[in-house]
Design brief:
homodimer; about 325 residues; alpha+beta; six-stranded antiparallel β-sheet; two-stranded antiparallel sheet; 10 helices; 10 strands
């Protein structure tokens, strides 16, 4: 989370002049996003988030992400709209990088969700899945269980063992999960990264889902499993917050009832969700020098979730 | 420039509840300030900057800085007010660190000031010097020319030469400047760090002076010299923008006419200003690993200014 690029007020004012949003009043680089730079921009008419895409995002996917925001917002989902420039473009180029102007929505990200908050996140997630159904574009999930298995194998047993002796076993576990992965569950556009960071709340209400840069076409129940893994544990992954997990599922099903096949798949889907973050964090850990000024996220927090789902998944996801 | 500390929404909401400012609506960590963490906070009534003091600031100075904002704002200077909590305190403690809630003022910092902007910065600086005169507290300048000479000497010729062969000569130059330093120029509270970063503008108007954490009791003409060094050059220090320097001085004198002693001292004061940033940047350069993720500022940008003032100072500051 960082602002990678410096933009002068003059450059920002010129950029803003291509949009029908009034003149530049204030601009603050904000510490959000891991794969892009963000500014909170105030103009004489409203506030916006300006995002500059720095890395990790395939720019050919950008129209998918930005059009998706418009589609979901138009359907009434609490999602920021993409602001289009005077010529109708959803993104522009600045210093050789793509930039997009996104609606600012109020709200704060919670660290320790309440049951009411988890319930409402579940309902909004289900509403998003239903609202996305008419969306014309699709995008493959490039971070599925096969990728996790491959990333862990590429890290190598030795490097994984150096982080934690328990990690090398996840290579085989990821292969098992990938082999058993269901391919026929109901699909839609999924967020696939709905951590508390990516949900803005006002009290118990969800005011915005943000950061759709992992959105893709995949099983809706997998999105619910990712969200379950992201919300229902203490941050070290050691403590399962049963009431949060239960409220999340109840909220989801208050809008969209899970099929029998989806519910039965949840223990495996949740293992796949945990493995995705085990693999990406292990890779980042190995690639990031220990003395770098960025915080490395401990892959073990998701190994503990993985263990929990392997052990308890059948029980907690039973109806 | 960074957000060093993570604060949860729950922690922020609790903090905000001690102020009479309404409930928390939004909070974004912003990439501003080198010695503290900052959040742009929106409540149900207004917007604020929340500052957490991380390092470099002697906390016993905090009442001086915060009360100064209130004094200057009350005198009509474009300076953000300090918000006091329900018990009247100007700062509170959070996780063992001092935090203050500061009024949010709109505006953007310019990179390439126009003559009109430089003129207005000059007028606001002079107005601030006059407005500060009734302020009851004082604070010694801990970053004067003697300190610069000492810091450079402590860096050592070898380490300085490694950065640039021209740098070791500044040790003797700083000693000369410190020995010739005038002690009887008219004093007030000075900002002493009025770089474009620390001035918010709307068009040509100054909407806010910010970041008073180097403010101290010292010669007003020295503050003007610092501001001259900060505004009148291309960022590499190689290009003097004569029209900007002239406009700044004209703006200043439209409010407060410089005395003959002040004007004659300006070439030396400007060398002292340049040396202050040469010394602090050289020190940071030596102390910051080359592969650290923070940007090291090149001390040579101020060596070039120093050279310019030594060579041309008498000419450009002559009436």
């Amino acid at each position: 989370m960082a602002v990678y690029t410096q933009l002068s007020a003059e450059t920002l004012a010129e950029l803003i002049s291509h949009y029908n949003v009034g003149g530049l009043v204030s601009a603050k680089g904000i510490a959000e996003g891991v794969s892009n730079s963000n500014w909170l921009i105030e103009t004489s008419t409203a506030r916006f988030i300006l995002t500059m895409y720095e890395r990790r995002i395939d720019l050919s996917d950008l129209p998918f992400f930005l059009d998706l925001l418009d589609h979901l917002a138009a359907k009434g989902c609490p999602v920021p709209r993409t602001i289009h420039d005077r010529e109708g473009a959803s993104f522009r180029w600045l210093d050789g990088k793509a930039v997009a102007l996104i609606e600012f929505l109020p709200g704060v990200s919670v660290d320790h969700p309440t049951e009411g908050q988890a319930y409402n996140v579940g309902t909004v997630l289900a509403e998003m899945h239903l609202a996305a159904e008419g969306f014309a574009s699709s995008r493959a999930n490039t971070l599925g269980p096969a990728t996790s298995a491959q990333v862990l194998a590429e890290c190598g047993e030795a490097a994984l063992a150096e982080i934690d002796p328990q990690l090398p076993a996840t290579i085989a576990q990821a292969r098992e999960v990938a082999e058993a992965w269901p391919s026929d569950l109901p699909r839609s556009i999924i967020h696939s990264d709905l951590f508390p960071d990516n949900v803005l709340m006002r009290g118990d209400e969800v005011s915005a889902l943000i950061d759709f840069y992992f959105a893709c076409t995949d099983a809706m129940a997998y999105d619910l499993a990712v969200t379950h893994a992201a919300w229902s544990f203490t941050s070290d992954g050691l403590g399962y917050r049963a009431e949060i997990g239960r409220s999340l599922l109840q909220g989801y099903e208050s809008v969209r009832k899970l099929g029998k096949d989806e519910r039965e798949a949840l223990p495996l889907l949740a293992q796949g969700a945990a493995l995705r973050f085990v693999s990406s964090r292990a890779q980042d850990w190995i690639e990031t020098p220990a003395d770098a000024l960025v915080t490395r996220k401990d892959p073990m927090a998701f190994v503990h979730r993985l263990d929990f789902y392997r052990r308890e998944g059948d029980g907690i996801f039973a109806e």
